[in-house]
Write a structure and sequence with these properties.
By secondary structure, this protein is of the alpha+beta class. It contains 14 helices and 9 strands. Helices cover 51% and strands 14% of the residues. Helix 1 (7-23) runs parallel beside helix 4, helix 5 (88-102) runs antiparallel to helix 6 (105-117) and helix 8 (240-276) runs parallel beside helix 10.
Length: 401
Amino acid sequence: MDAAFTGEQEEIRRTLRELLAKRSGPDEVRAAVDTAAGYDPELWQRLAERLGLPGLALPEEYGGAGCGPAELALACEETGRALAPSPLLATAVLAAPLIAVLGTAEQCAELLPKVASGALTAALAVPGGSLAVALGLTGGDPDWAGDGRAGGMQARPTRDGWTLYGEAGQVLDGHSADLLLVAAHTGGFARSRTLVFLVRADAPGLTRVRRTALDGTRPQATVELRDVPAELLGTDPADVAGALASVGRTAAAVVAAEAVGVAAHCLDRTVAYVRTREQFGRPVGSFQAVKHRLADLYVQLQAARSAAYYAAWDAGRPGPGEPGAATLALAQCLETARAVTGETIQLHGGIGFTWEHEAHLYFKRASADELLFGPVHRLRAAAARSAGLFDGHGSGKGAAA
């Protein structure tokens, strides 16, 4: 692995950081969160037109930049640093790669160029709020889509295609997406299998409600489908579980890098604050106890950054990659973000505890991401199982040993 970034990658980081510094400060973030969409559509279009951000990791044949997970992770590290609300994670990290893996040639040709241009946003809806399980991050119940029974998402064949019935919660940007990718079970209980379906935003019988979330910069919605007409993504049969696991591997690396951006911004702001905030006639940062706490956070952040970059590099390699690398990196980065954002509130003293301070926005992001993609102990347990550390049945080197 070459740990050095290329000139093109550094340019992505620099350009994105400059743009977000101008258009996504704390006031702009709060204003965007309060809109119906939950983000600034004008900023999203600028990110699409100037940087090609939605299509950064899509093939050039579909209007994308032809980059990989490393560039996407680098970009999301910067969006995490600015806490910029956007459909980037839902559209470019979760939905678009799933279309590319499962979709037919016609579906890819129709949808992916629109995604790359920023004209189409999409969201992945899985039943029961089981996003981490569906993406293969935490393991758990193999019948997360409901196993064809009540409480899940069910697909029924019709003369003209398919209809869907069920409910999905915690759908990222599900209230504003132009297209929903819905995972549902088909067939009866004995022959049930999970497939992915395309549902247009204007489909009859579709209800989408934005819910109050801990992290307002990461909008979530409840999606209800009552005999909603849908189009099968790809063909039947399809390796949906394998496709979701592949998307989950990249998503874990990207969310890990985003968490690094969150932690890095908070640490930078905290260091700057303790240098100027005085107590007992001297800067707070001159006290040895404060220095030790900041040094520990810095070491933890650098270790998390290394893990995130390795996971992004590993996700870009052909094949299954290093067992557990992405989930282990995600666990480390989520834990680091939670630790750094918590210390940010503490070290800012009284002002840090006020609800209006931007430290709370970052703390909520760190906490909410662990609820969505974790928890950390399950991520680590899943990584250990995939590496075969405990039972000898994993797919990695540990299993072979």
